[in-house]
Amino acid sequence: MARFLPAFRSASPSPTVNNGGEVASHSFVRLAFWRLRRTWGLLSLTALGLLAAVTILCTVPLYSALTLSLGLQDAFRSQPQSADIVVESNAEQLSASGLSHASALLDQEFRRLLGSYLSDANLSIATPLVPLVNADTQTISGSEVQLVTEPAANLTAHASLLAGRFPQATLPSSSTDILEIALSSQEASQLKARPGSTFIAQFAYVQIPTQRVVYNVTLRVVGVFSPHPDPSFWQGATFTTSPRGVSNGQQLGQQSTFLTTTESLLALFDRFGQQTHGLVLEEPFTLSWLYRIDPQKISIGDLRLLFTNIDQVESNIINNPGLNTPPLIEHLQVNLPSDALQKFYDQMSTLTIPLFSLVALVMGLVLFFVATITDLLIDRQSEAVAILRSRGASRLQVAGMFLVQALLLTLLALVGGPLLALGLALSLAHVLLPGNEQLLQLLLISQPLETLFSLSGYALAAALVGLLTMAITIGRATRSDVLALRREAARTSQIPLWQRLHLDVVAALLMIPGYGMALYLTNSQALDGHTRLILLTPLTLLGALLLILASLLLLLRLFPLILTAGARLAAARRGLAPLLALVQMARAPRQSLRMTLLLALAIACLLFTQVLLASQVQRSDDSSSFQVGADLSGRLTQPHTPRELATLTAAYRRLPGVLSASPGLATTLSGGGTQDVSIALRAVDAATFTQTAQWRRANSTVPLSTLMQSLVSAGRDAVMTHVVPAIVDANAARSLQLEPHKTFTLSSSDGQLSLAFLDVATVDAIPTIVSSSSPSGSPGDDVPDGGVLVDYGTYVRVLQNQFQQEFVAQEAPLNYVWLRTVDDGNQLAALRQQLSQTGALALSPLLDRRALRDQLLRAPLYLDLVGVLTIGASSALLLALFGSLTASWLSVRRRLTAFAVLRALGGSPGQLAATLAWEQLLIYAFALLLGIGFGALFSWLTVPALVFTATSGNAPAATSSGAFYVAQSMPPVQLAIPAWLPAIPVLLLVLFVLALALMTRTVSHPAVSYVLRVSED
Predict the structure, then answer these.
(1) Could you tell me which residue, 342 or 33, shows the higher pLDDT?
(2) 261 pLDDT exceeds 90?
(3) What is the per-residue burial (b if ≥16 Cβ within 10 Å, else e) of 696-710?
(4) I need a surface site. Which of 373, 740, 766, 999 has the fewest CB within 10 A?
(5) Whole-number Å distance between alpha carbons of 699 and 626
(6) CA-CA distances (angstroms) from residue 726 to 125, 379, 675, 815?
(7) Looking at residues 322-349, what average pLDDT do you find?
(8) CB-side exposure of 187: number of CA atoms within 13 Å?
(9) For residues 399 and 421, what is the distance between their CA atoms, to the nearest angstrom?
(10) 287 with 149: CB under 8 angstroms?
(11) Angular region, 594: left φ>0, alpha ψ -120 to 50, beta rest
């Protein structure tokens, strides 16, 4: 036994002197490193498992932060004004020193709370409209001018110089009232001005009612420019010249906007203020301090703090007495960024609920695999532990030995995991997020220590779970001796704790209220779309997890009984191999059950993730088709009368790339008992709509051609009955409390139009109508309560039978068009450009199904989902492969003596291989059935709640927050099954052959005599 024990005398008493703890800890370390030399292979595998777990758990939040930060950058790019904070005030005097002090106070406040997020700020001044003076007669000419100033240093970055130069920061002369200006090209052409031209503007200082001082300022044109499109920087100035209007039959003159520099205007009027001795400007000037948030300095984790600090800045500025100094600064107000950024944050928070619920699910699954693998690998050393205990080693020494090893492995994973996660996140981002390398490096590598520190919580959680699992297993192993170990290996006698506590029954009982609440939220109309969306996903996931857990625990309870029944059936038939396999599995089912669960959960995870990904892709396709209704659609910029239907259809058909066109009407009517139910109406040409529209199964199981035919058939008697046949969506049916094939009345908002409609069919959703029969949660969301689809020809004929032609043309114009187009990229690009321009056929906004689908599939949240599922599915498969092969090897290693006895009694290697094959076949077949069953059940229960709908551009779902929340369930989510899922059995077959080869080699490799001698104790 010398090779099993290190050089220590176990029978000697433990030291009790003051250095006893040091001696004990020293023995722990010696034992740990002694076993490390003998089991370094298994410990290396354990280390790799822990390292993989920590790496995966750190990569998921890091990659999610990257994709969401890219989404934030897209929000800034789509609406640049969302990055602007403007401080405005009126000024009745201009003082260079006073404004310098005010600017310093503002800068101090902004830099203190928002300094890390801001780019350079600038002060601009806008004068009121002041009269221009005729240079020859020195009288008021009738024209007016407004001066807009910007800092001289910023002009070249926001405007293109066409002639001359930009105004300088200094006055041409300190003694004359001359101010350099620049004109836009439109103004220069309209006013026939060029560099060197001059205008005279009149500014007045007053002291009501006794004194008025007038200054004539000469405006000298020094350049012609073209402003870059940046409304927030130019404070809305258009730099155009337009007529003032007409009074008493005479033209009043023109209004113009000229550009000059803040520094020169401030210097000139500072001098005027010193000369007027307390007089104030007759019309106050507008002061604007523009502070821009730099999108490159913001990550998704900064957004909540940014909102808090912006609110704090607003409060501090308004309440600062140093910034309320009339007449220099008065009526101070802070214009915060547009609500686009807040809307993005709200939508991101809503959509990340299913995303991070999925992350938690992946984390739990990975930790389960890690715990199982750790238990397997420590179990490998349980025999050595029992022998050590039998030879006199104390329980504390054995436990300390393994705890030292566990701590070393945990520290290795804790240090290496975040570093590997950083590299894995970058690699994943380069594959899934191409074109953003510079931003990715800025977000991750610019502050590597801060990034790594942010992952410490995830790394620590994964490492502690692994350490806790090893500690529990060590505690169980140190209580065993050789006799107890062999008895348990031969026949399992211990009842697990969960079985004694009946946790399967508890999980089943907890599942019931979770599903009850989820069903209530799904079907109830009491909650608005936002609240329902927030609560539905966690409750659905919780109920599904409890159901799966209850099923698993029930399986664990029934698994030994199933094996025992199988052994009895095998005993009644010929063949030794299946009998031996079933008897061995029934006597000690722990190892086989462990392998079965590993493989089953891996298959279930793979099936679930692939169904979720396929359903998300299908959702993007369905959502883009639903929001557009065809390949292209949009509102006509110039509505047409009903009699122009054929002409308009032919005009669109003649456009290159258009296969079919269907003009129609898109409007909103009111219904219900008090006419307070908003119903969106789509009147389409039934003859062309069938060939043009994108009608998916998510909208209705009834084909569109059948629905259109029903409208046409029912519309033949519509003129006589004055009832318009209509297809009603489910929300309209609920809102109007309609019964099938019943009539209802809809009216216009002004009450002049009131028509009866007949419900000929009810569908789940009508394309382009984002409606909800539940509260939207915001009074400004303007989400209709339902939708109705009618035939345009029938609708117009019923109107013409009751109203005058002029009224019909006003109430039922052709204002919407659906187009079916070719798939050729060049023709589509030309067609999009033609439809986006002004003209009789222009559409605004132009909705493009293909472009919208591509944008949805490139949305950061979708890419986040792809990355998370890729990490989760790949980690589950790798850990299951690793765990199943390890469990197979350990199972054979523990039973080497039994197999050696069988060989000594005459069993051939072929019979042993057949026994192992039957054992593995049963495990893999059972795992395949359970994995497919659990995966399909979990997908059916949770995928509809996890799939989300992103928004883009001018699509109906992007018009308001309420429409966005409603769009998550319109049209209904459809499950999609990937075509390659039958490859799962092939993967299991490969794994089965590999495991069988490994087990057969392990059994046949050592000599029988060697195995029996080694275990002769």
Answers:
(1) 342
(2) yes
(3) bebbbeeebeebbeb
(4) 740
(5) 8
(6) 58, 70, 18, 19
(7) 78
(8) 27
(9) 32
(10) no
(11) alpha
For 382-440, how does the pLDDT look when each residue is reduced to its tens digit (9 = 90+)?
A: 666 666 666 666 666 666 666 777 777 788 888 888 888 887 777 777 777 766 655 66
Backbone angles phi, psi at 258, to 5 degrees: -110, 155
Nearest-angstrom CA–CA distance, 971 and 969 = 6
Residue 876, SS3?
A: helix
Q: Cα(341)–Cα(979) distance, rounded to whole angstroms?
A: 39
Separation CA 206–CA 132 (nearest Å)? 19
Neighbour-count burial of 129, counting CB atoms closer than 10 A to its CB (0-12 exposed, 13-18 middle, 19+ buried): middle
Residue 440, SS3 per DSSP? helix
Of residues 497 and 376, more confidently modeled? 376
H runs (alpha helix) in 39-128: 40-78, 96-114
CB 440, CB 429: distance < 8 Å: yes
In whole angstroms, give the CA distance from residue 804 to residue 558. Answer: 78
Single-letter amino acid code for the residue at 319:
N
CA end-to-end span of the chain = 10
How crowded is residue 808: how many other Cβ atoms within 10 Å of its Cβ?
A: 22
Collapse the DSSP code of 120 into the 3-class scheme (helix H, G, I; strand E, B; otherwise coil) and give the result.
coil
Distance of alpha carbon 715 from alpha carbon 328, whole angstroms: 71
Structure tokens at 858: 């490139």
Find out whether 992 and 920 touch, Cβ atoms under 8 Å. Answer: yes
Q: Which residues, 6 or more positions from 915, have their beta carbon under 8 angstroms from its beta carbon?
A: 576, 577, 580, 581, 584
pLDDT over threshold 80, residue 378: no
The predicted-structure confidence for 816-864, as pLDDT tens digits, reads as follows: 999 999 988 888 888 888 888 777 788 888 888 888 888 888 877 777 7
H or E element in which residue 259 lies: strand 254-261
Q: What is the pLDDT of residue 182?
A: 93
Is the predicted pLDDT of residue 480 greater than 60, yes or no?
Answer: no
Burial of 580 (0-12, 13-18, 19+ CB in 10 A): buried
d(CA 4, CA 10): 13
- For residue 132, the surrounding DSSP H or E stretch is strand 130-133
Inform me whether the pLDDT recorded for 479 exceeds 70. Answer: no
For Cα atoms 64, 373, 456, give the angle at the middle one, nearest 5 degrees: 35
d(CA 672, CA 736): 6
Distance from chain centroid for Cα 330: 43
Distance CA 726, CA 790 (A): 5
Angle (CA) 119-124-126 rounded to 5° is 155
Tokens of 11: 């029978």
In angstroms, rounded to a whole number, what is the distance separating the alpha carbons of residues 543 and 747?
44
Six-digit token pair at 154? 């910023």
Contacts of 860 (CB under 8 A, 6+ apart): 67, 68, 70, 71, 74
The first and second tokens of residue 270, run together, are 């500072």
Cα dihedral 594/597/598/601 (nearest 10):
-170
834 compared with 24, residue with greater pLDDT: 834
Extract long-range pairs of 128-137: CB within 8 Å, 24+ residues apart.
Answer: 128/283, 128/284, 128/285, 128/286, 129/255, 130/201, 130/202, 130/203, 130/283, 131/201, 131/202, 132/199, 132/200, 132/201, 132/202, 132/253, 133/200, 133/201, 133/202, 133/216, 134/200, 135/198, 135/200
The 10 Å Cβ neighbour count of residue 214 is 11
